[in-house]
Design a protein that fits this description.
This protein has about 575 residues and is of the alpha/beta class. The protein folds into 3 domains: about 130 residues, Beta-Lactamase (2-Layer Sandwich); about 170 residues, Reverse transcriptase/Diguanylate cyclase domain (Alpha-Beta Plaits, 2-Layer Sandwich); about 250 residues, TIM Barrel. Helix content is about 45%, strand content about 20%. Helix 17 links the parallel strand 14 and strand 15. The relative contact order is 0.06. The C terminus is likely disordered.
Amino acid sequence: MVVASTNRLREDRDRFVGFTFAHADLLVQLDLDGCVIWADGALRSLLGVEAEELIGAPFAKVVAGTDVVLLKAALHQLNPGQRRRDIPLTLIGTKGAPVSALVSINRSLQQSEQGYYVAIVVRPPDAATAGAADGMPARDRVSGLVEAAQFTQTAMNAFNQARQSGKSTSLTLLEICQGEDLNRLLGPDRAEALTAEIGAQLKLHALDYDSAAHVGDGKFSVAHFTDESPASIVAAIARVGESYDIDAVTLNLSRRTVDFPDSSLGDDDVAGILSYVIERFSRDGSEGMAEGVSAQDYLRKKTTETLSRVVAMRDLIHEQRITLHYQPIVSLPDRSVHHYEVLLRFADGRSPFEDVKFAEEINIIHELDLAVTQGAIRRIEEAAEKKHNLELAVNMSARSLLNDNFIGMFDQLARRLEKKRGNLIVEITESAKLDDLPKAAQAVDHLRNQGHAVCLDDFGAGASSLPYLQQLIVDYVKIDGVYIRSITGSRRERAIVQGVLTTCRCLGIKTVAEMIEKEDQHTCLADLGVDYGQGWLYGRPFSEIPPTAPTSATRLRRRQGSKEMWS
C-alpha cells in the first residue's frame, strides 16, 4: 500500500514536471536566500552548465548586468503564495553569450518548504532581437530603466494595452537628491547600487518593465495602474534608501502623480501630455508641478501654452525679428572659402535650438525655413549688385522637404536668382526624420534639376544616414562633429570617417567635416582626403560677410562650368 502510494506520488510529480516543461525550458527551485536547491531542463545547451554545478550557488550568478538587481528585488517582494510572471531577464549562456528569457516566480505557501519555484522560457533569437530592429528602447546604464527620450513611446504602448482592457492608469514622477549628493553620502559605488535598486523597484511597479524611466539627474517616472498606490511606490523607494542607511528626508524623496482615469483621450493627446509632463518635470522638478492634477488639466495647460508659443513664433517670423549669421566653409587643401552656411539667430540673442524643435513639432518649420531662405536670397542679390559672387547654404528641415507647398514656395523665391540659383545650396537637416524616402528623393532631384546643390547634414548622427545615402542623390555629405572632435586621438572615429569617405568617393559626393577647432584636426582630415571643413578654426558665425575674392566654388565652376559642377 505504501509502495503503491509512493509510486503514485512519483508519477504525479513526473507528470507535473512534464506538463511544466511544456511551458518552460528550465525549472529551478531556490531557497529563501536565492540559492539553487534543484534544477532541471536544457541547462547544458542554454547555460553551458550541469544541474550539479548550480546546486548551492546563487541563481544570480547566471543572470547578466542590472538584471541581477531586478531578480533579487522580485524575489524579496513576494510573500508566501504570491507569484510574478514574465519578468524579462538576460541570462549568461554558453561561453558568456546573452540568453533572453521570460522568468516566472512562485513563492511556496508551505511553511515546511519555504522558497521559490522558477520557470524560465527562453525567447527565440528572432523574438529577442526583433525589438532592436524596431527600436528597442535604450536603457540607462546604472538604473537599467528606459532613457527619457524613449519613455513617451514605451509608456504609450503600455497605456494603450491597459486602456484596451478597461483599466485606469497613472503616471508618477519621483525625485530624489542629485547624483552629486548621493556620491557624497554613499560614495560612487554605493550610490550606483542604490540607483540600480530604485530602478528595479520601479520596473516591478510599472505597467510593464519598459514603462519606467530615468528622466534626469535624480528624476524618475513610472506608468502604473491607478490601483497601484503611488504611496506604495514611494514606500518601496524609501525602503531602498533605508537599506543604505538613508531616510526619506535625507534622500529628499518627493513625488507627483497625474491620473489618466478613462479612455476619452485620444492617442495623440496622451502622447502630448506625457511629453509635456516629462519635459516640465525634467526641467523644473517636482516643485514646479502641482499635485493631484488630472491628465485633462495638463492637456488644457499644454494647449494654452502651445497656442501662445505658436503666436509668438509666427510673430518672430513675420515681423522679421530674426537675424542671419554666416559661417565659412573652406577647402581644406588651401583654406580658401568655398561658401557660407546661413545660421538662424533671434534678435534677442537666444539660441534657436528649442524654437526650431518646437516649430517642427507643431509643423510650422516650413515658415521658418522660408524666412531664412528669403533672407539668404536677399543677401546673394545684394552681393551681386556689388559685383561679388556670394554662395550660401540654407538649412531645410526634413519636414519642409516633404511639404509640397514649401517646395513650391521655395521655387518661387529662388526664381529671383535666375542664373544664380546655383549660389543657393540646400542642407537637409535630420532633426526630424525623413519618413517618406521616395518622396524625399523626388524633392531632392527637383532641387538639383533647378541648379541647387544638396548636402546631407549631420551624416552619421542617426541610424538613417546610410538609407538616406542609398536613396538620395546628393552633392555633399557633412560628417557629424561627434566624429571630428576626437579624430586625432581615436582610431575608431578615424576608421568611421575613412569609411564615410570611401563610400562618398565611390558615389562622387564631396565631403564636409564640421566642428573643426584645432590645427591637428585640420591636418588629420586633410590627410584623410576630406574636401571641405567648417568650424571655429576658420571662423565663427558672424552677422556680416567681409568682401573677399571669389570663393573656391566660384573658381571651380569657372574652370568646369556650372552644369558640370552640379551634375
